[in-house]
Amino acid sequence: MKEYWKSGSMKVFCGNSNPELAARICRHLGIPLSSSRVSRFADGEIDAHILENVRGEDCYIIQSTCKPVNENLMELLIMMDALRRASAGRITAVIPYYGYARADRKPAPRVAITAKLVANLITEAGADRVITIDLHAPQIQGFFDIPLDHLYARPVILDHIKEMNLENAVVVSPDVGSVERSRSFAKRLDLGLVIIDKRRPKPNHAEVFNVIGSVDKMNCLIFDDLVDTAGTLTEVAKTIKERGAAKIIACCTHGVLSADALEKIEKSPIEELILTDTIGIDASKSAKIRVVSVSGILAEAIRRNHLRESISELFN
Fold first, then answer.
1. Which one from 6, 67, 106, 198 is the annotated catalytic residue?
2. Starting at the edge strand that comes first in sequence, how are the strands of the sheet with 58-62 ordered?
3. Per-residue pLDDT at 2 exceeds 50
4. Which of 227, 284, 288 is nearest to 259 (CA)?
């Protein structure tokens, strides 16, 4: 197996969504980022060209389907098609942030389940395997008919929180759907859990109805998988501040940060927002933002996948 690793039969490519993360992953792996070109024709169509031989190689494409979502998704699909037609041995789509994940069921008649549609597109384009981090809904793993490795950003976020040496702290779940994730963090930090009863009357709009548990004079850690318009996050922070919370720290894997999200965060009682680099973020836009990297986790998952070693052992 070690000879297989040293033989150089693995190549890592990336699209335009997050080249900085791809470079960090390659530094962890100790290999150069493989050469490709993803450009546009005059009418906006995507032109992808793999610039080196990949016949029989174990190929990885690092591409988050973040904004511009459709552009980045099409880049991923076209690059996989290019690799497949170049006779790549195995193609793994490394998707740190999996977009279109919020439509994972039919909450009303005549709506699409886009999480499943995108899974079909990725499979049909030529992926043999998918590696992703903190899916919005874990059941999306079952939408794929190919192997999917679901990784967690939890280790790097926990390391950062432990360095803060917070006392008198409690973990806050921003809604019922995040309870399992928040409970996992609370268990590893040996902290209590508070649950927010939230309703969403329409997309990107949240209303807090009740707080289950006490936050009075507590340092609160809010955990969620993503922050988009920051409506939910800032509303939860405002509510628990009114209930007597001391310091409020928010931790989200994916910093989508759409519309006026940064402005909302700046005006909120949140003192620090911890994000990962699954999506490229300019932390200089807000003094409250702290970015931690998941490149080490992704690099180790790629290495283990390449060597046919267990990936689940990463999180034991």
1. 198
2. 10-14, 58-62, 90-95, 129-133, 148-151
3. no
4. 227
* Helix (DSSP H) and strand (DSSP E) numbers for the chain: 9, 14
- Tokens representing 242 are 């009114």
User: Following DSSP, what letter does each residue of 246-298 receive, concatenated?
Assistant: --EEEEEEEE---TTHHHHHHHSS--EEEEETTS---GGG-TTEEEE--HHHH
Q: Secondary structure of the chain: what % helix, strand, coil (to 5)?
A: 35, 30, 35
3-state secondary structure 45-89: CEEEEECCCCECCEEEEECCCCCCHHHHHHHHHHHHHHHHHCCEC
Backbone φ and ψ of 251, nearest 5° = -130, 115
- For the chain, domains (ranges, CATH) are 2-152+295-315 (3.40.50.2020), 154-292 (3.40.50.2020)
Rounded (10°) angle between helices 295-306 and 154-164? 140
- Residue of 104, 95, 101 lying closest to 127 (CA atoms): 95
Q: 67 an active-site residue?
A: no
Residue 194 φ then ψ, to 5°:
-115, 140
Residue-wise pLDDT for 279-288, tens only, equals 999 988 899 9
156-170: per-residue pLDDT in tens? Answer: 999 999 999 999 999
The pTM is what? 0.92
Give me 208's structure tokens: 């807090």
C-alpha span between 216 and 21 (Å, rounded): 39
Between CA 120 and CA 143 the distance in angstroms is 8
Provide Rg for the chain, Cα atoms: 20
| 109 backbone dihedrals φ, ψ, rounded to 5° | -65, 150
CB atoms within 10 A of CB 240: 27
| DSSP symbol at 126 | T
**Integer Cα distance of 79 and 61 in angstroms:** 8
Distances (CA, A) of 275 to 154, 286, 306: 11, 12, 28
Residue-wise pLDDT tens digits, 299-309: 999 999 999 99
